[in-house]
Amino acid sequence: MSGPWECGWRGALPALAEREWDLLIIGGGITGAGILLEAARRGLKALLVEQRDFAWGTSSRSSKLVHGGLRYLKEGRFGLTRESVHERDALMREAGGLVEPQGFAFADYVGGKPGRKTFLLGLAIYDLLSGKRERHYVDSGEFLMMAPNVGRNDLLGGICYTDAKTDDARLVLRVLQEAQEHGGVAVNYLAAQTLLRSGTTVTGAKLLDAVDGAVHEVRARLVINATGAWADGLRGQTGAAPKIRPLRGSHLVFPAWRLPLAQAVSLMHPADGRPVFAFPWEGVTLVGTTDVDHGSELNTEAAITRPELDYLMLALQSQFPQQGLTESDVLATYAGVRPVIDSGAADPSKEGRDHAVWVDDGLLTVTGGKLTTFRVIALDALKHAKPLLPGWTDKLEPRPIFARRARLGMRLRGVQRQRIEGRYGASAGALLTAAHPGELELIPGTLTLWAELRWAARSEAVQHLEDLLLRRTRLGLQLRGGGVAHMARIRAICQEELEWTDLQWETSQAAYLALWNTNYSLPT
After folding, report:
1. Which conformational region is residue 402 in: left (phi greater than 0), alpha (psi within -120 to 50 degrees), or beta?
2. pLDDT value at position 2?
3. CA 20 to 30 Å from 226, out of 108, 277, 323, 356?
4. What is the pLDDT of residues 81-137, one digit of tens each?
């Protein structure tokens, strides 16, 4: 069987290792995926490797927002906001169904901060930068129709604006799919252990295949370190000093019926004034985020802590007092580690979110930045790469992020059709063709089709059950207990597609449920 990730690639690793590569990209999150796409479509021979699964790190555990950087306006960073707004709008235009507009509602209370005038001034600039004009202030009556569950004491009205949201893991997968259609190669569970050198210059890496334990040496004209919060690990092999401050952001997931929202509600936390969001996402309600130093070992999967849970619950109970929310209402939790450049700020929230590019002994490292601006980051990395790739003369002008695709016809209608087209691009038609009877129905409590499980198992380089349920689909976040109640049907659809024995399935299921209980449930 073959698909967007040619299944033969894993078996062909020895042959891949013998190829002459222009780029070896280490890191399979949104930054590495974006670089692979921009490099491959410009004629470079590029190989991407990821030590775990694609999007395993930060890029499957973000806040899911594709935003224009409203917060940067108060810092006077108009260029960064303009850039973010432009990229947000391009993604909504080119990836409808994957990147979708999301209205935000901010309650205006007596004595609340930031003040109404300050907020509205920022939104006026936001409109100017995006080339749009919206009505931003509504009175309390209209605001309560938009966000009926907010606290009503001292409510003056509300401020509204529009940004966007996405499924971050599926965005990474869609970018990788596009890259591979241009000749790029991406392999998961292939870890860069040791950098290879010619003299003092980095010329490749020794790679360990986590599936079969084989070791391969791959050489390239340039090695790009796109490992995000893990970037200092590879840079350390060149003797470079650490520059990353890993910050953890944790989130809660509620059933949509328990915290029903038509708009995203943006609020300032009553304890420290930090912004916290609650918004509808993929059939559930998502709440986040925290912003704390991550002191744990980076190669151990991040998890929410008890203080972070209490912090987010306090914000919810303050904003939605009549809902009576308790932690027993939480479906799932998740935590991701952000790669932030360390400036020494005492408050983690005050650290900048810019990306950075460094070259150490020929190793090009790119890290930091935001999900929204992954194309800008990729092009900047390739501009820095250009002097290190003699003979490559591409002008690096921005191109459409995604190719235009033919529509699916009427097998799916409306929102569901757009959703599948946006997430799967050129593979959307094949996904529907592969569906068995009854598999174009929604999995209860989600916006996911049963057919998406079959397609992922068949064609998307799934090596473990967690890949399938936490990244190819998001059932591990959307269903109580990580989806254990549906496991029999999931197995019936996927085991044969994965070509797993009963023992392989049972072993992977046990590992997935143990991971879910440790890292995606409530903290003990």
Report:
1. beta
2. 42
3. 277
4. 888 889 999 999 999 999 999 999 988 888 877 778 888 888 888 888 877 788 889
CA atoms of 243 and 343, how far apart (whole Å): 9
Using an 8 Å Cβ cutoff, are 42 and 394 in contact? Answer: yes
**Cα 195 to Cα 202: distance, rounded to the nearest angstrom:** 6
Query: For residue 303, what are its two tokens?
Result: 């998890």
Q: Could you report the per-residue pLDDT of 334-348, keeping only the tens digit for each?
A: 999 999 887 666 666
Cβ atoms of residues 443 and 283 within 8 Å = no
State the pLDDT at residue 412.
78
C-alpha dist (Å) from residue 80 to 53, 338, 363, 427? 30, 18, 26, 34
Phi-psi region of 208 (alpha: psi -120 to 50; beta: other; left: phi over 0): beta
Tell me the C-alpha distance between 301 and 521, whole Å: 13
Q: Which residues of 493-505 are buried (b: 16+ CB within 10 A; e: fewer)?
A: bbbebbebeeeeb
Supply the pTM of this predicted model: 0.95
Q: What is the dihedral of CA 347, 350, 351, 355, to 10 degrees?
A: 160
Q: Is residue 290 predicted with pLDDT exceeding 50? A: yes
Beta strands in 342-466 (DSSP E): 355-360, 363-368
255's torsion region: left (phi>0), alpha (psi -120 to 50) or beta?
beta
What whole-number distance in Å separates Cα of residue 363 and Cα of residue 88? 30
**385-419 pLDDT per residue, tens:** 999 999 999 999 999 988 876 667 667 777 889 99
> Which amino acid belongs to residue 286?
L
Among 242, 243, 220, 244, smallest CA distance to 25 is for: 220
* Beta strand segments in 232-348, E: 244-255, 264-268, 275-281, 284-288, 292-293, 332-341
Reported as a single tens digit per residue, the pLDDT across 130-189 is 777 888 899 999 988 888 888 888 889 999 999 999 999 999 999 999 999 999 999 999
110 residue type, one letter = V
3-state secondary structure of 325: coil
SS3 at position 342: coil
Interatomic CA distance for residues 311 and 289, integer angstroms: 10
Domains of the chain from N-terminus onward = 8-59+169-243+352-388 (3.50.50.60), 100-164+245-347 (3.30.9.10), 414-519 (1.10.8)
Q: How far apart are CA 80 and CA 380, in angstroms?
A: 14
Listed residue (92, 275, 116, 109) closest to 124, CA to CA: 116
How many helices (DSSP H) and strands (DSSP E) are in the chain? 17, 18
